[in-house]
Amino acid sequence: MAHNLPHIPNREVIVDGKPYLYFGGTAYLGVQDYPPFKTLFVQQMELYGLQYGASRKSNVSLEVYSKAENYMAQWVGSEACLTMSSGYLAAQLLIQTYLKQGLALFATPNSHVALHTQGVTKVNSIVSLKESVQSEITMDKTPVVLFDTIDFEEAMFPNFEALQQLPLDKVILIGDDSHGIGVVGASGNGAFQSLKALNPAKLLVCCSLGKAMGIQAGAIFGNEEDIQALKSTAFYGGASPAMPSFLGTLLNAQDIYSEQLEKLRENYFTFKNLLKHPQFFDHLDGHPTFEFTDDAMAKSLETEGFLFTNFRYPDESGPLVSRIVLSAYHQKEDILKLVNCINSLV
Q1: b/e string for 165-204 if b means 16 or more Cβ within 10 A?
Q2: For residue 309, what is the enclosing H or E element?
Q3: What domains are there in the chain, each with its CATH number?
Q4: Which among 44, 119, 127, 188 is least surrounded, fewest beta carbons within 10 Å?
Q5: b/e per residue, 63-77, with b = 16+ CB within 10 A?
Q6: What is the residue-wise DSSP string for 179-229?
Q7: Largest CA distance in the chain
Q8: What's the confidence (pLDDT) of residue 313?
Q9: Kind of pairing, strands 320-325 and 289-292?
């Protein structure tokens, strides 16, 4: 059942006069409605205004873009970074660029729709992916594999066993780290370094910054040569950039992000350690999301005063997804109330 709210949900929402604890969405660090974060954004908006609609290739530019990109590249562990106004555009920039080069692109079964477009082949299994990749290599071509770093169905994060079945030294990897950036990694810096350790022929990682990090923008990480080649495209030059006030906020919110990540990890370990039947959930170790497919459980939890992600995705013909999402805005008593309820119901 859909619920329309008059404001951004936080740890508690009111629906038809009834309070619910909210464990849904993707606000992993809980900054979207966090007062210190909003104050910082308003300060940056006073400095940079609402929007900067000029092309990034213009002869006049704002230094906040290069500063933010240099910072993020260093943080993530890549040589370079570029930003776009959304994660979807960042993914499409990569896909369109490699399609124009005549390469074959293969998307894993559960990859995000941002990685799909005409010309991309979506495989139905990792076995099929291996066969398609090997076929391209046999013809002396370099295949491109598109995937989500956070994938509950395939063996991806944290060890990426599914990818390790491929001849990675002959494969270009493009990972969507939208659900990893800000959350996983030693400092919340995502999956880039773990993927780099697999030594693929080439690695590019794209992501939305609008989930954990609360920034309406997208980013691409890779080596200097590839990032500069992407910046030379008409696709990049023709797109308006992200709001400079958002990137200024990202640059100045490092302490906030660190504090919120510590809170999230405390909530995660409290929930995980007290959960009596972890096998009930599909869960990736280290990620604050817990999926299940039991409709009766979903209804019982809502009756007990919990709201969470529960809808058909990515469209009405898709499977019903029930997902509990832990956030830094949850208090310890919220976590205890939820886990005790689950333990009594399973």
Answers
A1: ebebebbbbbbbbbbbbbbbbeebbbbbebbbebebeebb
A2: strand 306-312
A3: 12-31+255-345 (3.90.1150.10), 52-252 (3.40.640.10)
A4: 127
A5: ebbeebbeebbebbb
A6: TTBTTSSTTSB-SHHHHHTT--SEEEEEEESSSTT--S-EEEEE-HHHHHH
A7: 63
A8: 65
A9: antiparallel
Q: Are the CB atoms for 244 and 64 separated by under 8 Å?
A: yes
Helix (H) or strand (E) holding 127: helix 126-138
Q: Length of the chain, please?
A: 346
Write down the pTM of the prediction: 0.94
Give residue 307's pLDDT: 94
User: Among 46-50, 52-56, 76-80, 287-291, which stretch is predicted with the lowest mean pLDDT?
Assistant: 52-56
Nearest to 236 by CA among 228, 244, 225: 228
Percent of the chain predicted with pLDDT > 70: 97
Structure tokens at 24: 């849904």
Q: What string of DSSP letters covers 260-290?
A: HHHHHHHHHHHHHHH-S-GGGSB--TTSSEE
For residue range 128-147, what is the model confidence (pLDDT) as tens digits?
Answer: 999 999 999 999 999 999 99
Task: Output the average pLDDT for the chain.
Answer: 94
Q: Six-digit token pair at 323?
A: 């997902």
Q: Which residues of 274-308 are buried (b: 16+ CB within 10 A; e: fewer)?
A: ebeeeebbebbeebbbbbbeeeeebeebeeeebbb
Measuring CA to CA, how many Å separate 188 from each of 102, 162, 192, 213?
35, 23, 11, 10
What backbone phi and psi angles, to 5 degrees, belong to 253? -105, 20
